[in-house]
Design goal:
- The protein has 10 helices and 13 strands.
- With 313 residues, the protein is an alpha/beta fold.
- It has a 13-stranded mixed beta sheet, with helices on both faces.
- α5 runs antiparallel to α10.
- The longest helix is centred in the N-terminal third of the chain and has 17 residues.
- It is globular.
Length: 313
């Protein structure tokens, strides 16, 4: 494969509140620079011929601006049409990102291979889905799954802006939020780092979700309102607070924590409908691709309820 750089030219009254644990106890959990370091490594966004690139470019450009990161627009193809597609996409990106922070790359090969090569040293790699569902969404999701399991970058499946999507009457309880899955693993801490950075950069509220099979009810805790709703599993609440506390201290973000009962994939998909972003963690341990990614991350990438980011531990 050859790569060419063409950059030149439920809430009810509070019951049985569970207080947050002292955050000094968990500061050791988060130290140093975020592993994915997007501001330094940059963002790669893939565009394809035949699809309107506006949605995925808009998302990637906003992320680049918020994180002060360079943006690389990537396309696979080796003909004049490929040059035209890339030129158009590059022009769109340069309207949204400061001059000198956008470059374009054309690769001769399969889209997955071209994107993987371009994103080898990137912090985030972004692919986009068209408005509505279908085989195109599955194909994009399959590419994102491969990038998440085999690459070094956070892999994002960007949904089009709401104005370009069909009406969605069934929204989740956290519209406009950044929703992040938490389970106490290194992968979920990487997801929390990314989620808090995104929420801070875009001035979005954040909710960290822990899914349990041991509780008979859903409940959530809001740091700003100091309310806890329908809590009967204080152990789960303490775990979420242990994980979220250090990040909440480091970022100026309105953060809430939630505990929900059910299957993680179904719960996160339901809660993130209408959310700004859903973030899930990906294990970094040597393992088979399915074991490394996990069924939840794989499921939300293949059928994204909103824009989804899968972040490596």
């Amino acid at each position: 494969m050859t790569v060419f750089d063409t950059s030149r030219s439920s809430a009810s009254p509070m019951t049985n509140p569970v207080p947050l644990r002292p955050r000094e106890q968990v500061q050791r959990r988060v130290t140093g620079t975020p592993r994915w370091a997007p501001a330094a490594a940059g963002i790669v966004v893939g565009v394809s011929r035949g699809d309107d690139p506006t949605g995925v470019l808009t998302w990637a450009a906003r992320e680049a601006r918020a994180l002060h990161a360079p943006l690389v627009v990537c396309h696979a193809g080796n003909d004049e049409r490929a040059d035209a597609v890339l030129a158009e996409a590059g022009a769109l990106a340069r309207r949204a990102v400061p001059a000198g922070h956008v470059r374009t790359v054309r690769g001769d090969g399969r889209p997955l291979a071209v994107l993987a090569a371009a994103a080898d040293q990137a912090g985030i790699v972004v692919v986009g889905t068209a408005a509505g569902a279908g085989s195109g969404t599955q194909l994009v999701g399959t590419i994102a799954v491969r990038l998440a399991t085999e690459g070094r970058s956070a892999a994002v499946v960007a949904r089009p802006p709401a104005s370009l999507q069909p009406a969605q009457p069934q929204q989740g309880p956290f519209p406009g939020h950044v929703v992040v899955g938490v389970d106490g693993s290194p992968a979920s801490r990487a997801a929390l780092e990314y989620a808090f950075a995104h929420a801070a950069g875009h001035r979005r509220p954040l909710v960290a979700v822990y899914v349990t099979t041991g509780s008979a009810a859903d409940y959530w805790h809001d740091d700003s309102l100091l309310d806890t709703v329908v809590t009967d599993d204080p152990g789960a609440s303490a775990l979420v607070d242990d994980e979220v506390g250090p990040f909440a201290d480091r970022y100026r973000v309105r953060a809430a924590s939630a505990v929900h009962r059910g299957r993680p994939l179904a719960v996160l998909s339901r809660l993130s409908r209408g959310a700004d972003l859903l973030v899930v963690g990906v294990n970094g341990r040597p393992a088979g691709a399915r074991a490394r990614l996990g069924s939840t991350a794989r499921g939300v990438l293949l059928d994204p309820p909103t824009t989804v980011a899968a972040v490596r531990a």
